[in-house]
Write a structure and sequence with these properties.
Blueprint: H1 16-62, E1 86-89, H2 91-99, E2 104-109, H3 114-127, E3 134-138, H4 139-142, E4 156-161, E5 164-168, H5 177-181, H6 183-193
């Protein structure tokens, strides 16, 4: 029994051309993979932008991000009327507060109106034990003031920040009806802004 000698088959020699083609093919696969990853990232970023933009838009419309709070001025211009919570003002006093960029609460009132009396009671109760004063402007004077650009019906309560009305109750809107009829709803509305 003789030794068998294995013949070694020579390894297939790859030509430089084949090596180059193999490298090029691998490089193309790598480039295709990177392009696919890049497309995925672009889609992810686009999706984030669309969803984020939608949330910001919807959130702003729904008031999710909170409201700018009105910081009321504490130096009231009321002369000898400062003992009372309600400070009666006319158009010239109102316009002066606006020109001086004051922040305050103004109650648009009308004598003989039962809803105005209820709202006045809510304001009195809310300000009890505080230094908050409410300026009262009669509805008959409203048309001569810049507030008429916002408030068309009485009674109303408007919050003015730095000389600009930012929010007001609308007596003609069902959305605000609960604030006219329920003290807790009224206070929640105020606290949303103060």
């Amino acid at each position: 029994m003789g030794d068998r000698v294995k013949k070694e088959t020579p390894a297939k020699e790859t030509s430089a051309k084949e090596v180059e083609e193999k490298k090029r093919a691998e490089k193309q696969v790598t480039i295709k993979q990177k392009m696919a990853q890049l497309k995925v990232w672009h889609l992810v970023v686009l999706l984030i932008v669309i969803v984020g933009g939608t949330l910001v838009f919807v959130g702003a419309a729904a008031g999710w991000f909170g409201r700018e709070k009105v910081v009321l001025d504490t130096n009231y211009e009321c002369g000898d009327k400062c003992d009372s919570v309600m400070i009666d003002i006319g158009v010239s006093e109102y316009n002066k507060l606006i020109d001086e960029k004051k922040s305050f609460i103004v109650f648009v009132d009308q004598n003989g109106c039962h809803t105005a009396e209820r709202l006045k009671g809510f304001l009195d109760k809310y300000t009890e034990g505080t230094d908050v004063k409410i300026y009262r402007l009669m509805f008959s004077d409203l048309k001569e003031s810049s507030l008429y650009n916002y408030v068309k019906y009485y009674p109303s309560v408007a919050l003015v920040s730095k000389g600009k009305p930012v929010v007001w109750l609308r007596a003609d809107e069902d959305e605000d009806a609960d604030k006219y009829n329920d003290y807790d709803s009224f206070v929640r509305w105020l606290k949303d802004y103060l």
